[in-house]
Amino acid sequence: MSTNTIHTVSPAAIGPVELTVAEYGSGQPFLLLHGGAGPQSVSAFAELFATSYAVRVLVPLHPGFGGTARPENLDSIAGLAALYDALLEQLELSDVTVIGNSVGGWITAELALLKNPRVSGIVLIDAVGIEVPGHPVADFFALTMDEVFTRSFHNPDPFRIDPATLPPAAQAIAASNRVALAVYAGTSMTDPELAEHLAGLEIPTLVLWGEADGIVDTGYGRAYATAIPMARFQLLPDTGHLPQLETPHQVLYAIWHSAETDFSVFAR
Question: What number is the average pLDDT over the span 100-116?
């Protein structure tokens, strides 16, 4: 079970933002950032993580998603990173591992670039954000929802839904999520300068990638890991772009038991 709290967070140059944060468990803190699929793509994983390893998992809802308001000047991935950097300060958290999937992974990378000492490690799960020649990010906004499901999962059938069958309120939220995603990430979901910036990042990093990811392929994932000096890449079999949803136990094992001593930061 989670506890939902609304925090008023005031990052510099953005001003006060009403931020809803779901919190699971207690113990070592993990900040878990969802992608364009919304908080429902990470909530079950957060609960499983908290109960399996007695940790504290905080899942913020990106403003503009889930029917929430988005301040007009909060309009970029860097802005979201600044928001979560301010949240860590406000909550006075320390030794935080930040985990992000898809666009949440991009936010995680940008947050790491702020070099807040409260962040001790990051996990990127099928992240977008960098440009990789020959390995483009799929044009999400040009895909039908059926194509999105096909590209997002190794076995899409258990997850496939027809958006037209959703209640009107749920359809409205899905539409607003799509608008918020475009505002934050743009239609390309990349920043041509991000990979260069990541070259100066010195933080333990685990890059997890679904072998069947049809949104960003494994070559893209390997390039992401190569861009970060302290990164380790791990391929996850039989899963796609949302492994925390499709194969959550595999992701848990990879994070908690990743590695040998280089990544002991994730297994305290």
Answer: 98
